[in-house]
Every structure is written in structure tokens, then in C-alpha cells.
Amino acid sequence: MVESPQSQNALSPDELHEAWAVLSGDERLEGFRLLPPAVADDFFLGLSAREQAELILSLPPAERRTWVRLLPPDDLADLVQAVEPDQVNTILSQLDDASRREVNVLLAYAEDDAGGLMNPRFARVRPDMSIDEAIGYLRKQARERVETVYYAYVLDAEQRLQGVLSLRQLFQAAPDKRVADVMQRDVITVAENTDQEAVSRTFSEHSFMAMPVVDEAQRMKGIVTVDDIVDVVQEEATEDIQKVGGMEALDAPYFDVGFLAMLKKRAGWLMVLFLGEMLTATAMGYFEHEIARAVVLSLFIPLIISSGGNSGSQATTLIIRALALSEMRLKDWWRVARRELGTGLALGTVLGLVGFTRVMVWQGLFHSYGDHAVVIGLTVGVSLVGVVLFGTLSGSMLPFILRRVGFDPASASAPFVATLVDVTGLVIYFTAASLFLRGSLL
């Protein structure tokens, strides 16, 4: 059988996925249409909500319904949130009444809450069912609407959660036993308004495949599955990394963010950091007489302030990540301060000794500092101890302060801490210089 030219030019799913980010809308549609039906479904489900929405809206109206109805309600809610407001009805109009109601319920929740993540379709049984009846009922649900069956949730007539059964427990139980006899009554749940970060921590603590979402009356509203949490963890980690880098978090992949939007995300923090660095220039102006009288001091300014900034960036990165993973809480700030005090002194002493040694070696090789080499070396060494200590303490405490006043600790970005330490580093350096060099170079 001879392949058609279209089939010969078709990309494999892996090749299309790799090239997807750089393809135009028309090229994406053409490549997607060339995929064999057997793999097109999986390829479509593997796209992000924004990419799914763009692809669906590029299809003729007659083809949209098939792809929209392929998605479960929680993914449909994500897709609706990814389109422009005037396109929402275009998507919702493709759904049957029951699916539309489910999606509208999900859209009423905040996007980052458990209610916004959950799938309202889950396997349910009644406590008075026999094991055989429960298995038959689960088969019926799987054929009709439920895509994910990790556990069977036991609900009473008011939809309150009574217990849970794994499929293994179901199949191992005697056929004539009742569900209430074998179900596990102590069920780990999350409230519908629980933040997605807290949900991901609960998953990591218990290693579940799915977790029930309940309201205040313990009525079960849906399930959050582990694949949803993988996406959440990636999203939260990306957001934190971008904030730590000294910018606002992007709301979309890099190539999907417009030029003006990218400028807005990055310019704000750059302006703040620039204004902060202006204080560094002010501090240097304050010590201009000392610099003029001992020009050699200016040679070590980059060394001093970069060491303080680096130590502060290290500390703030460690604390931000520990807070994000709930390895520490706000009340642990004093324990952290004591630990970082010792760490800062030790690191500062090591760098101070290296700085002093560097001055002495250059003096021995090149006679760079004249009769004042030892005093200059002491000035550099002591300054490094003070600057690194201050950088470590400020870098470790700033995330706690931000969390305490209600901000994201990740906003304590490494560039922000470095800018803060630059100014204080100059003050520490020239204060040490005035103590050691007064009466000689100053």
C-alpha cells in the first residue's frame, strides 16, 4: 500500500510536541490533523489548557464538540479559564447540560483551591450495599461517566462521606458482606477551600492516588488526583523560582507571554532594585573623602559587597524553600536566627582569612600596599566577617518577615537581598576602615 503525500510529511507525536512551541496556529492545526486517530486523543490530552483552548478554537465548529467532550470537568474548567471572556460561551455551548453544570460549579471556586482542582466525577457506593452489588455499581459508573477509579467512596443519602474502599479491598472481601463492614472509616480529606500548596503537602505526606474534597458539612464534592498535584507542584515551583530570580511570576509559558506583558513582569522589580542600588551610590558618596585619601580601599569594594550579597542569597534561598515545604514554621524564626548567626560567623571568618591572605600574598609578590599592608588586610578580613554575618542573618530573616505580614516569602528574591546587603556592606567596610586606618591612611 502506497502512503499518501500527507502521511509521508506527517510528524510523529513526539516530533510535533517538540516543535509545538515554535509553530504558528495554522501549522499546529495542520500537524494535529495529520496525527493518526489512535494517538491524537493522547496528544490532545497532553497539551496545556491554554494550548488545548487555542487548538479547539481553531477547529471548525462541527469538530469542536468531539474534543471538548473528551475532557473531564476539572480540565474543562481549566480550559475555560484559559480563554478570553468573549470565548467562554463558545466552549460551554459544546457541552451537554450535566457537564455544563459541573463546569460552572468548578468555576465558582478559586483556581488555586482544592475545589478548583477537583473532578466532581468519582466512584461512589452506599454503605448498605453488598460487595457484589458495589462491584457491579462501580462497573456501571466506569462505563458511563467516571474516568478515574482509584478508590470507591462510601456516601450516605445526604452525600456525606462515611468511608473509603480500595479496589483491592473490594475484590478481597466476601461477596455477601456489606460495604459498611469492610470500609475504612478514618478518611483523610481536604476542605474545598484548601489552598493547592496545602493539598500537595497532604499528598506528599500520605502518598495517595486521589483525595476526597468535602465541604463544611462533610458532604463530598469531588476528588483531587495525583496527576493534578504534579501539575500544581510544577506550577508552584516555577512561580517561586521566577520570584526568587527577581521578577513577577509569569502566568503562561515563556513564548506565550507577549512582549509588553514580559516587560511589565520584569520592569517593576528591576526599578525597585535600581532604586535600591542608588542607595549604594549614596553610601559611596558619603565616604568619598575616605576613598580619595586611600584609593586602595576602592579596590576591595566589589569583593566586600558581592560576598555579602552571595551569603544573603544563599540564606534566603534555603529558607524560602524550607518554608514552602513546611520544614519550618514562623515560630521557628529564633532557631533559624541562632543557627544562621553561627553559620554567618563561620563563613565570614573563612572568607575573612582568605581576604587577609590575598592581601598578604599580593604584598609579598608585588609590594602593592606599601607599609600598610597588614592593616589593610585586617580591614578587609574584619569587614568580610561583618558583611557575611549581616548578609546571612538578613537573608534568613526576610522570608519570615514577609510571611508574617502576609506576603509570599519567595518575594524575598536573591537580587533584592543582594541589593539590601550592598548598602550595609559599604557601611560596615568603611566603618572598619576608619577604625583600623585612622591616623595612617585616613
UniProtKB/TrEMBL annotation:
Domain CBS: 118-182, 183-239
This protein's UniProt keywords: CBS domain, Cell membrane, Magnesium, Membrane, Metal-binding, Transmembrane, Transmembrane helix, Transport
Pfam families per the UniProt record, alphabetical: CBS (PF00571), MgtE (PF01769), MgtE_N (PF03448)
Protein's cellular compartments: Cell membrane; Membrane
Transmembrane region(s): 267-287, 299-320, 341-361, 373-402, 414-437
InterPro entries noted in UniProt: CBS_dom, CBS_dom_sf, Mg_transptr_MgtE_intracell_dom, MgtE_N_sf, MgtE_transporter, SLC41_membr_dom, SLC41_membr_dom_sf
Entry keyword Transmembrane: yes
Membrane topology (UniProt): Multi-pass membrane protein
Job description of the protein: Acts as a magnesium transporter.
Recorded family membership: Belongs to the SLC41A transporter family.
Subunit structure: Homodimer.
NCBIfam families assigned: mgtE
UniProt protein name: Magnesium transporter MgtE
UniProt gene name: mgtE
